[in-house]
């Protein structure tokens, strides 16, 4: 930590050499802020002086020993390496004089006042001063004598008087006096300093805080990057690290040393500048720094820690109940120590260390006082509420409105945790029952976003309050979404019916919104919105809706129940584009995200889901984060990316445990069951199936999704009857609800797979034909899957046409998993026609790996009824006549370039010149091309390369 102290040490070295060479005494005062390294400078200089032939006597002042007369003088004498009899006379005189010096009291706090009285008490002082000086002179005859006194501000008055006597007589003595003093609120010992400044050989040396260059040099010397390698990139990294350390410590050497000590002792897993575990070495160094200041400085630091924002001296004075002018010296002392910057504590670790040192009751009182002052000064509600919550203070008519405003701001800023803290206190402070219920509704919204399980009791109390008080029926509407999440559809319907008929204005929009939420989440109630669809259809298509929430849910309704004149995909994309950057809009955005999924646009769901998951505010809202992840995972599953889908669904269940999902738990569970089933990990799929699902889930579309996933698993393990029962039940539900969306609930397709597994191809073909004829929500993925399965029921000629169409459709929907299956089936069909090469090229043209994903069981017309595959089974062997592909059987980029030029009629020499390769290399490429494409000469190349036209273009 002696970096950036070269100049100060050089001055001390010069003073010592001058004293040694010319015999002229020197007095040097080293000053600096607390923690600036004064003690280390004195110790380093003392070691250097001792090695240079000097004698060093050391002492240090202490606040605890300021009333001990001659304490510092005694330390100096006892640090001398002399025989006891040489200093016995001085010690005896010290004991006699000490008895005559009056003890200091509150009315006399300077050395001058104390000594003025004692000097005239008797004649003992003169002999003591002369004897002490003579002792020092005798020591100086053996070599230059260095007297170092650390923390001069805490030195006792009697020792100061002796030091002054010595310093006045150093003109021709080889004695050097080095004193150090920390910055204090008020100048310590002003008369003593006045005397020092009048001495002819007095010098003052200041120790500034470390700078950016200081840290760069320090880090460079530690890493050896700048001095040894001169690496510019390494220098840049060191410069950036130096900036981070400077931001934390403010250049205070004491804090810097503590920070490096933490890193060296592995107290933290992060970089030194990023902080470490609370209560570590750095935190203790911060408190050491404060406790070495006066109590007034520590109190100002505590006030800044409580406020946690830039504060004026007037505000600090009001908070501490002192005159604002008295704050200025304390602020200056904290700035000098590097603890504050721009009017506040410079780093969260410093703030935490200071705040943790404040007694709990005192901290509560300061927060209460801060809330009152900030409110009186017109501060923002969120700022005032922070102190109200910290103090748990509820007195005052203004408290509840401030907490309500702060909670609304926190909710719009995606900080439901802060909103919940404000609302809990606001409910205690509010005296009006209606307003208290309103705050309870807001609290439910906030707490649900953090933990849906935490709101069950409050939702029930709010519904009960609405039943008993007819003047607040609209308050119960706030509980409807959470009742639906818990599967309490009847209570939600009762709350909605209690609000009367539709009208106009915001209240009417909220009523229509909740009515539509009830119908879409529990389609048994769809009849109520189907009877009058005009309102929500208009809301879905409105260019400037009064309620964005109503428009978002209406777009989702249109995806499940299409209406003329509304483009679901366009409307959903428009909503996402308009609001994806808005704070507090996550609840609004999940509806259009689901609408895109229902409309078969999984590719757009993947894009928008990724954007939403990247929002910073999502880390504070586990519930919405889990919902977005579940939707994003299902979209990835429909795009054939099983790894991304499984990770997303697992993360969704980590954000929210299964019980917290309520009736929506079938969403992520269904995705996970399908992923593990398709991956052949049936034991793991069975583990997910054992997770309990509420009975109410099967009254929701999510329950239908779960039934399809469970049916696919049961088919994979050979439980055909159980699989058929699940899929029939799903079909009955969606048809009874009137939301038989082909792409969302492809139950006929999955039921056809069951029939194929049982060998009943005619029934399977009938189901697949019906699936293809369902116009509502028939997306490319479902159409492509149905065509592929239908091909397995058709004759050879028709099979090839169906597979070709299936491949084309699946390429457009980007489901790589299903496309690989279609290509695999195509590969089985083409070799039977006598030529496997087009199949290989077709696989390559699709941009897929040569081997298709392994299937746990071949259920579509190839398995034996009642058999089941096991988790982790090996991939299906290649069918007869179709060689399993590997990357070496495909053309490399260099081989394709040579093949294309050869097909165009270029000679080997021309190809060599055009591609800048040797003729021998051209011949080697062509040899491999002929072998891979199974051709005999150049004339056959054009036809063989037609299948590669797309990637070559």
């Amino acid at each position: 930590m002696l970096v950036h102290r070269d100049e100060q040490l050089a001055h001390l070295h010069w003073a010592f050499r001058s004293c040694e060479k010319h015999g002229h005494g020197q007095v040097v005062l080293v000053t600096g802020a607390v923690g600036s390294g004064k003690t280390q400078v004195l110790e380093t200089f003392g070691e250097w002086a001792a090695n240079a032939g000097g004698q060093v006597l050391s002492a240090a002042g202490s606040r605890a020993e300021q009333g001990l007369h001659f304490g510092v003088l005694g330390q100096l004498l006892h640090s001398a390496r002399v025989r006891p009899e040489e200093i016995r006379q001085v010690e005896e005189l010290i004991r006699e004089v000490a008895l005559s010096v009056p003890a200091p009291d509150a009315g006399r706090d300077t050395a001058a006042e104390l000594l003025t009285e004692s000097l005239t008490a008797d004649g003992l002082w003169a002999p003591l001063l002369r004897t002490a000086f003579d002792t020092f002179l005798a020591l100086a005859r053996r070599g230059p004598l260095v007297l170092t006194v650390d923390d001069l501000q805490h030195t006792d008055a009697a020792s100061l008087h002796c030091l002054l006597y010595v310093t006045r007589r150093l003109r021709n003595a080889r004695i050097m006096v080095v004193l150090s003093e920390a910055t204090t609120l008020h100048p310590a010992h002003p008369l003593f300093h006045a005397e020092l400044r009048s001495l002819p050989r007095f010098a003052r040396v200041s120790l500034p805080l470390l700078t950016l260059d200081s840290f760069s040099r320090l880090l460079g010397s530690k890493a050896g990057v700048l001095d040894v390698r001169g690496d510019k990139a390494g220098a840049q990294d060191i410069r950036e690290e130096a900036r981070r350390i400077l931001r934390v410590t403010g250049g205070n050497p004491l804090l810097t040393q503590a920070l490096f000590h933490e890193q060296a002792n592995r107290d933290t897993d992060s970089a030194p500048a990023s902080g470490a575990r609370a209560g570590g070495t750095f935190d203790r160094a911060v408190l050491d720094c404060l406790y070495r200041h006066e109590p007034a400085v520590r109190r100002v630091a505590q006030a800044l820690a409580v406020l946690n924002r830039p504060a004026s001296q007037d505000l600090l004075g009001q908070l501490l109940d002192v005159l604002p002018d008295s704050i200025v010296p304390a602020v200056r002392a904290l700035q000098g120590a590097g603890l504050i910057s721009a009017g506040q504590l410079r780093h969260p670790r410093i703030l935490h260390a200071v705040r943790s040192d404040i007694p709990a009751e005192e901290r509560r009182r300061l927060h209460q006082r801060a809330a009152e002052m900030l409110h009186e000064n017109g501060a923002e509600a969120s700022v005032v509420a922070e102190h109200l919550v910290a103090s748990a203070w509820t007195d005052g008519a203004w408290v509840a409105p401030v907490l309500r405003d702060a909670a609304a701001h926190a909710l719009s800023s995606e900080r439901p945790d802060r909103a919940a803290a404000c609302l809990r206190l606001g409910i205690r402070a509010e005296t009006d029952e209606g307003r208290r219920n309103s705050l309870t509704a807001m609290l439910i919204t906030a707490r649900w976003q953090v933990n849906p399980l935490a709101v069950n009791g409050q939702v029930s109390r709010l519904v009960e309050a609405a039943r008993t008080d007819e003047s607040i029926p609209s308050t119960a509407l706030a509980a409807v979404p959470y009742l639906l999440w818990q599967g309490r559809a009847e209570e939600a319907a009762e709350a909605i019916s209690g609000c009367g008929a539709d009208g106009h204005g915001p209240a009417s929009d909220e009523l229509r919104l909740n009515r539509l939420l009830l119908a879409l989440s529990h389609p048994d109630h769809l009849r109520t919105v189907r009877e009058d669809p005009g309102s929500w259809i208009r809301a879905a298509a409105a260019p400037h809706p009064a309620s964005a929430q109503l428009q978002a849910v209406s777009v989702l309704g249109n995806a499940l129940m299409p209406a003329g004149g509304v483009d679901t995909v366009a409307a959903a994309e428009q909503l996402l584009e308009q609001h994806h950057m808005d704070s507090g809009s996550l609840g609004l955005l999940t509806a259009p995200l689901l609408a895109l999924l229902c409309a078969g646009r999984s590719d757009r769901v993947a894009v928008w889901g990724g954007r939403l998951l990247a929002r910073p505010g999502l880390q504070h809202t586990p519930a919405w984060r889990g919902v977005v992840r579940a939707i994003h995972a299902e979209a990835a599953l429909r795009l054939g990316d099983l790894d991304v889908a499984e990770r997303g669904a697992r993360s969704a269940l980590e954000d929210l445990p299964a019980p917290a999902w309520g009736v929506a738990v079938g969403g992520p569970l269904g995705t996970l069951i399908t992923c593990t089933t398709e991956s052949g990990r049936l034991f793991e799929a069975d583990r997910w199936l054992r997770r309990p699902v509420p009975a109410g889930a099967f009254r929701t579309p999510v329950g239908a999704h779960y039934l399809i996933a469970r049916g696919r698993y049961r088919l994979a393990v050979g439980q055909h009857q159980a699989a058929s029962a699940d899929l029939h039940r799903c079909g009955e539900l969606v048809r009874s609800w009137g939301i038989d969306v082909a792409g969302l609930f492809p139950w006929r397709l999955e039921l056809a797979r069951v029939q194929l597994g049982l060998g009943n191809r005619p029934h399977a073909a009938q189901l697949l034909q019906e699936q293809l004829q369902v116009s509502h929500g028939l997306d490319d993925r479902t159409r492509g899957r149905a065509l592929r399965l239908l091909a397995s029921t058709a004759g050879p000629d028709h099979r090839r046409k169906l597979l070709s169409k299936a491949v084309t459709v699946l390429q457009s929907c980007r489901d790589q998993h299903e496309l690989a299956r279609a290509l695999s089936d195509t590969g089985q069909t083409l070799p039977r026609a006598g030529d496997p090469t087009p199949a290989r090229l077709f696989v390559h043209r699709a941009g897929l790996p040569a081997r298709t994903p392994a299937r746990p069981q071949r259920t579509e017309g190839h398995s034996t009824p009642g058999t089941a595959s096991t988790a982790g089974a090996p991939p299906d062997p290649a069918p007869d006549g179709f060689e399993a592909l590997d990357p070496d059987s495909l053309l490399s980029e260099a081989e394709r370039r040579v093949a294309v030029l050869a097909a165009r009629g270029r000679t080997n020499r021309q190809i060599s010149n055009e591609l800048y390769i040797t003729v021998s290399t051209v011949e080697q490429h062509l040899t491999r091309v002929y072998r891979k494409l199974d051709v005999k000469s150049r004339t056959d190349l054009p036809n063989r390369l037609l299948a590669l036209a797309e990637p070559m273009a």
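The chain is about 60% helix and 5% strand. Residues 224-233, 267-276, 845-889, 947-953 have pLDDT under 50 and may be disordered.
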